Amino acid sequence: MRRLTFFLRLFLWFSGRHMRRHLGRALVVLFGIALGAAVFTSVRLSVYASLHSFTRSMDFFAGTAEKVLVRPGGYVPEGVLPVLLAHPAVKDFSPLLTTYVRVYPPQGSSFLLIGIDPLLDQSFRKWRIRGDREKKDERWLDLIREPYTVILTEPLARELDTVSGARLKLEHTRSTAEFRVAGILVPEGLALVEGGRVALTDIATFQEFTGLYGLVDRIDLTFKPKTTPLDIEDLTRKLPEELELRSPSAARDSGTAMIQAYQLNLSVLSFASLFVGMFLVYSLVALNAASRRRELAILRAVGASSRLLFNLFLAEGALFGLCGWLLAIPLSSLLVKYLLHSVSQTISTLFVRVQVEGLVLSPWEILASFAVTLSISIAAAFHPAREAMGVSPKEAMEIAQTGVRGQRSVGKLAAWAVGCILACVPLSLMPGVAGVPLPGYLAILLLFVGFSLLAPWMLERVGRALSPALRRFAGMPAYLAGRYLRDSRTRTSISVGALITAVALFTALVIMIHSFRQTVELWVQQTVSGDLFVTTKMGQVNRFRFPIPEPIVAGLQQLDVDADRVPSRRFQMTYGDFPYEFEVLGMDTFLKHGGFVWMKGDPETARPLLLRGDGLLVSEVFANRTGLGIGDVFRAQIEGSRVEIPVAGIIRDYRTDGGVVFYSWKEFRQRFHDPQWSGVRFYFRDRTRDIDVQTAELRESLIARWGDRLDMIGGKELRHAVLKIFDETFAITTVLLLIALAVASLGITTTLTVLVLERTRQLNTLFAIGGSFGQIRSMICWEAGFLVVAGELAGLACGFILSYLLVYVINRQSFGWTFLYTVDWATLALSFPLIVLTALVAALPAVRTAFREAPATLLRER
Amino acid sequence: MNSNSAEPVIHARKLSRTYPFGDSSVTGINQVDLDIAPGELVVLKGDSGSGKSTLLALLAGLDHPTAGELVVAGHHLSNSAGADLTRFRREVVGMVFQSFNLLPTLNLLENVCLPALLAEKPPEAVRGKALELLDWLGLKSRLAHFPAQLSGGEIQRTAIARALINDPALILADEPTGNLDSRNGRVVIDLLAELNRSSGRTVLIATHSNLADALAHRCIRLRDGAITDPTCDG
Q1: Which residue in the set B63, B83, B104 is minimally distant from A404, CB to CB?
Q2: Is the peptide bond before A579 cis (omega within 30 degrees of 0)?
Q3: In B, which residues are within 8 Å of A854 by CB distance?
Q4: 3-state DSSP call for residue A465?
Q5: How far is the C-alpha of A622 from the C-alpha of A259, rounded, in Å?
Q6: How far apart are CA A323 and CA A373, in angstroms?
Q7: Which of A700, B49, B143, B196 has CB 3.0 to 4.6 Å from B41, enough for a Cys bridge?
Q8: Which of A487, A762, A860 sits opposite B53 (nearest CB)?
């Protein structure tokens, strides 16, 4: 205890007072670390909020169910209930239906309507009407007694400005009806699903409202104690073949895996800011250790151990980490407000629907961000602390330095650097671990470390090569700048390392985002081709589960319009636990007007197979997740039909909800059953007439005939909306990137200032022997320019390699997709002048610092 | 080089320099009157804190006086600034420091050439002059060596060569033997004396040591920022 007290006291005297005296530098570093920590923490908390909301929703929804009976791609007939009732293993069962509805006339967004049997559901899910005490008042029985009654959650009731007893008109794909609000749910259990925006109604009312007579989405089951797997097998045998018993957590686990993969990706990106901030800490602690060398020697001379010096500087790093993290708290609170909405929107767009009520402060996430920030800062201080350990007490007797202190061989560092960079190759070829691209992330880390270690060698080579030319063409200041950088080695390479990291990230993300967008644009133009898209009302939000009514289909087929029609039907399926869509499409007409973005397989060979129904197409995500390749047989049970067709090709597709499988509409109808229409797209034949005008005319005629029973969107509008969604999903990435660049700029500023401070004596000597302020200022600016150019060039090279890793390894292993690799040269070229400008701006504080001490101090004895 | 002129090369009247220190101030030098003729070798003596370094800094154009008049080689330093002082430091004065102050990343030849190159003189001519100086100082075989590879004596001789490259009228040496052994210290003092004799340059040496006493034309003693003995006898 006494040792600790002494250490703290010495730390305050030695390090604390020094920091207070040079507060500006410390604050810059603190701000850099705080920014990095704030970004990292905010990202983690934002995604956690979505993850928490999703898993909680799924858990409350699953309730106590041990198994769930479903029919892939379709509905479970109520006719199986007697089988369940009769089976000795089944304890309880509860049928369930869900759909998205909205208030009529439309206001706000849609919400989930759940149809349950209030009696059977009691043992499965927790829900209670406000005012009911343990259901003794039986107000919940109103659901059974009175048709078209509904119970709302509190947030939903507030949003719809309604109360218990009021009447509410609800709109669904197939109908609109008036409901009476029988009560408001207490916020617990089922009332917390979907962010608290749900409504409950009796299953019979639900079936009547939606037209799903005798059908349910699923039947939840619990079993009697001592039920064995054999009993479950027996039950399965007694059920119709097209039904499946699944784990209730399957959907939750699948969605959780996708969100966690996204969280890891964003965490790595946000970690880059912290990583760059690490360089800031290193710079300042290294400066403190170098500039106070004499004081360290004196400490050693009066009895301090080398370990004590080591601990002093390590503690400096720790202090930066701790204070930086504390400062990150208010910064995070600002950042998280923006990120929370963006992240949840991205997750809902790309993966699974989430409704986030607000921030959830997970103690583990907060602890993780604290631990990471502190570790980074301590790691950054490690090397300077070790150097401080090596100060000899004899140095206390020296008056002045006469030469450059020996530094690590740049050749050795370069060898390590090459080793690290080469190690990326085998790592990038390794598969992920439990779906997480860990070898890929390790490859990225080694890439950054490798290029950072290469910086001293690079600076030496550049300085050596350019120095003679510089003297001739740019004068003494440039020459001196080049010479200093050539010989400064690790001192300046830290700043260059930070800049390399930031520029590499910038380059890689610019390439990745551009590649993604270009590929999506191509996909949109080809696969999302069409002039007008028509689906059932609320078809999209209900995932096209409800086909267009037959009379309307007949009307659409007979419509007097000069356009080709491509009908489609989508089935929501799972392959094991992996969700995908099986889409039947009017293939022959579609291929005349649009197409697919092929990845594998020959389109010419595959086309006749597709048209004949002897082959189908799977998306890249589907192929990567399931392992099915060209020639492998795809098998699935779809609405009672057993489909077994070989894979004819693999295509790129970027719709949400996992993978997709395409098959010919005509052949599906002939071989299996009538799939019905969930949507149709129109292609106008007359391309000479204004397409917008034709689209508007067709829309008007459809509305005139069927009112609001159909949802419509123009092809251009849809393609624009799809691209807008993709742009918005990358907004977060762009923000993280800009923050990393900002931290790197702080790094350059700090390091330049540090370099000037370390050389005060030299700069004053230059002044004393005839150097002007202008010449010295010019020299510092040249140094800044060299650092930045070196960092930019190496960063570009690193960034190109990183972009390959991101596109072909990380994205593929995390999400199952890749993109067509294309480079946005214009944006990359723009970065160069921007970064040079940053360097010049960053040099200003350093220049001002150069002459803060009077040159006359040269004449003082040390 | 300014020699054989009737005007003193250093002329100071009531020269003062004070430094603010919290609510009070510290006196560096106080009301110093000083005249040094061209071609003199003057030794400036005084204990630590006597004001030697302050006076030298003012004479070198590294600091500004708080009060008084200071003219060095015709340059009025009391009210000079910016480009004038830069030109002064390049052309008029050559500094030799106690801590040598060579740039560690430049070799011996480059360190010597540096002030002339900063003055934008033709590189070839500068190199020739530097080689001449280094030859005279016995350092011709060490041209490509860096300061870390030289002995204390060699470094200080290099610093003398650097001080001479722009042919200044005045050499100011601040404790030039302070970090040297007695043999090397003797060598350096002899060099400075030789410079004074052969070229007629004015040399002012601030020192604790007695090595230069016998060679100096004059000795000035400072105490507490004032000249106590303008003709000190050791």
Answers
A1: B104
A2: no
A3: 62-63
A4: helix
A5: 17
A6: 10
A7: B196
A8: A860
- Strand pairing class (A616-619; A641-652): parallel
Q: Is the alpha carbon torsion for A843, A846, A852, A854 positive or negative?
A: negative
Whether residue B62 and residue A856 make contact (CB cut-off 8 A), yes or no, is yes
How do residues B146-157 score in pLDDT, each as one tens digit?
A: 888 999 899 999
Q: Are A116 and A133 in contact (CB under 8 A)?
A: no
Alpha carbon distance A800, B141 (integer Å): 49
> Do the Cβ atoms of A143 and A113 come closer than 8 Å?
no
Helix (H) or strand (E) holding A621: helix A620-626
* From A487, A770, A859, residue closest to B89, measured CB to CB: A770
What is the Cα–Cα distance from A436 to A443, expressed in whole angstroms?
13
The H or E element containing residue A128 is none
Does A131 have pLDDT greater than 60?
A: yes
Q: How far, in Å, CA of A369 to CA of A362, rounded?
A: 11
User: How far apart are the C-alpha atoms of A544 and A656, rounded to whole Å?
Assistant: 13
Quick count: other Cβ atoms within 10 Å of Cβ A303?
8
CB of B211 within 8 Å of a chain A CB? The answer is no
Beta strand ranges found along A722-791 (DSSP E): none
d(CA A746, CA A29): 8
Residues found in chain B? 234
- Residue B29 · residue B17 · CB < 8 Å: yes
* Residue A585 zone, left/alpha/beta (φ > 0; ψ -120 to 50; rest): beta
Strand partners, A77: A215
Q: Note the Cα A822 to chain centre separation in Å.
A: 21
Q: Length of chain A, please? A: 862
Name the band, by pLDDT with cuts 50, 70 and 90, for residue A403.
very low
Q: State mean pLDDT over A804-813.
A: 88
Question: Where is average pLDDT lowest: A52-61, A294-303, A772-781, B116-125?
Answer: A294-303
- Say whether pLDDT at A398 is over 60: no
% of chain A at pLDDT higher than 70: 95
Residue A463 has pLDDT above 50, yes or no: yes
CB of B50 within 8 A of CB of B225? yes
Residues 6+ apart with CB under 8 A from B119: A770, B90, B91, B166
The per-residue DSSP string of chain B comes to: ---S-SS-SEEEEEEEEEEEETTEEEEEEEEEEEEE-TT-EEEEE--TTSSHHHHHHHHTTSS--SEEEEEETTEEGGG--HHHHHHHHHHTEEEE-TT----TTS-HHHHHHHHHHHTT--HHHHHHHHHHHHHHTT-GGGTT--GGGS-HHHHHHHHHHHHHTT--SEEEEESTTTTS-HHHHHHHHHHHHHHHHHH--EEEEE-S-STTTTT-SEEEEEETTEEEETT---
Q: In Å, what is the CA distance from A816 to each residue of A261, A440, A481, A578, B129?
A: 11, 14, 49, 12, 71
In 3D space, the residue among A533, A531, A485 whose CA is nearest the CA of residue A786 turns out to be A485
Interchain proximity B62–A858, CB inside 8 Å: yes
Output the CA torsion sign for B205, B209, B211, B215. Answer: positive
Whether the Cβ atoms of residue A445 and residue A743 lie closer than 8 Å to each other: no
Residues of B numbered 132-161 whose beta carbons fall under 8 angstroms of chain A's beta carbons: which are they?
146-150, 152, 155
Instruction: Identify the top-confidence range among A38-42, A114-118, A285-289.
Output: A114-118
Those residues with Cβ within 8 angstroms of residue A790's Cβ, 6 or more apart along the chain or in another chain: A455, A458, A459, A462, A496
Taking CA–CA distances from A485, the nearest residue in chain B reads B105
Calculate mean pLDDT across residues A543-568: 91
B42 min Cα distance to partner chain A (Å)? 18
What tens digit of pLDDT does each residue of A765-774 get?
Answer: 888 888 888 8
Choose from A354-363, A565-574, A833-842 the range with maximum mean pLDDT: A565-574
- Residue whose token pair is 């590294």: B62
Token pair for residue A40?
């990292």
In this structure, are strands A176-185 and A149-153 parallel, antiparallel, or unpaired? parallel
Measured CA to CA, the distance from residue A327 to residue A154 in angstroms comes to 37
